[in-house]
């Protein structure tokens, strides 16, 4: 679904597909087209440093495999969902999933080492296309350093895409800062409709490809009984029955986050809140949504053993279960 909106390639063959990619995305990539055709495959180096990016990137990978008339080979960094699409991650995605300056400082040497490893792996892989997904701190450093390395080696480098535009609309002077990205980003895949025009107005190639929540709807459309085709409805009664939630219980869903740093901070607040609420709501049940992050999963498993009220854990990766729990 994601790329059909951009590339209608059903009747195109090998060169036609790649020329279409170049034309629609306004990227000068004649050398890349020739290389991919000559090599008989499209090599995509794809990097996601967050759980949300793992979902987005895995869908992109699935779409590329369906649409490309050439075989596609992936390398890079990703999570469990990207692994299902054929990626063997260079290292666990959790190694670069860090947020905030204070959380970053203790890990800065490790992150530098991972960045170096990723750059070297990309050079060895010789990709035709590099795609980074969200996580702009790591992504932009990677793209910038890759562009420098290829220039130093006097080589025609791969085309650089960044999926999920940075939140320039939330920064002071953010739109002007977009111009600096043109040095190492060839094209941005935007998830909000207004972002495309703003990026293009600042010299940065961009295409609006739709918001990921729409794909949630498409994946769940087989169970949608609502007259509104874009409405997601979960099966709350099924969820309550499977988890033995008593009738009349007060159910509170908790979403502590996807990074270990934020989860440790938020769960302390949530636990104290549940301590206060349990006196007023004797049949209080919490449903904790867990991101697909092994460190987060391990931490939450340990914390809930001392949780003040009954807790049901909802693992990441299942959209059906997530919406059932939230209904």
UniProtKB/TrEMBL annotation:
Q: Which GO terms describe its biological process?
A: lipid A biosynthetic process
GO MF, any single term: lipid-A-disaccharide synthase activity
Print the keywords alphabetically. Glycosyltransferase, Lipid A biosynthesis, Lipid biosynthesis, Lipid metabolism, Transferase
Q: Which Pfam families match?
A: LpxB
Report the EC code(s) recorded for this entry.
2.4.1.182
A GO-annotated cellular component: membrane
EC class name: transferase
Q: Which InterPro entries does the UniProt entry name for this protein?
A: Glyco_trans_19
Keyword Lipid metabolism on entry: yes
Reactions listed under catalytic activity: a lipid X + a UDP-2-N,3-O-bis[(3R)-3-hydroxyacyl]-alpha-D-glucosamine = a lipid A disaccharide + UDP + H(+)
- Stated name of the protein: lipid-A-disaccharide synthase
Instruction: State the organism of origin.
Output: Cannabis sativa
